[in-house]
Design brief:
Rossmann fold; two-stranded parallel sheet; 3 helices; 4 strands
Length: 102
């Protein structure tokens, strides 16, 4: 049930992004959808388990690596500096949605 709730939340956020872009234009509204990013979020996971998961990500994702916090910062900078992008869902995931990890 956890995955279905997460997917509903993501879908709602994407719909909200597009609706707000329409309603608030010319104010730009965009969303960054991060993939697996090596951040403090993983600190609660045992190190061996985290390293095994990150190894699986590196093997499976087209980018061949785990994302860095800096990757999200660069995406945010792009969205802030391009004044013709609105209503966009910018996936910063190294191709995560293109593959399936079992």
């Amino acid at each position: 049930m956890g995955a279905s709730m997460m997917m509903v939340a993501f879908a709602g956020l994407e719909a909200l992004t597009r609706a707000l872009a329409l309603e608030l234009g010319p104010i730009r509204v965009n969303t960054i959808r991060p993939g697996v990013i090596d951040s403090e979020m993983w600190a609660g996971m045992p190190q061996t388990k985290r390293e095994a998961f990150f190894a699986l990500v590196r093997e499976s994702f087209p980018a061949g690596r785990v994302g860095k916090v800096d990757d999200i910062g660069k995406a945010a900078l792009f969205l802030m500096t391009n004044d013709f992008v609105t209503g966009a869902i910018l996936e910063v995931s190294g191709g995560e949605t293109l593959v399936s990890i079992e």
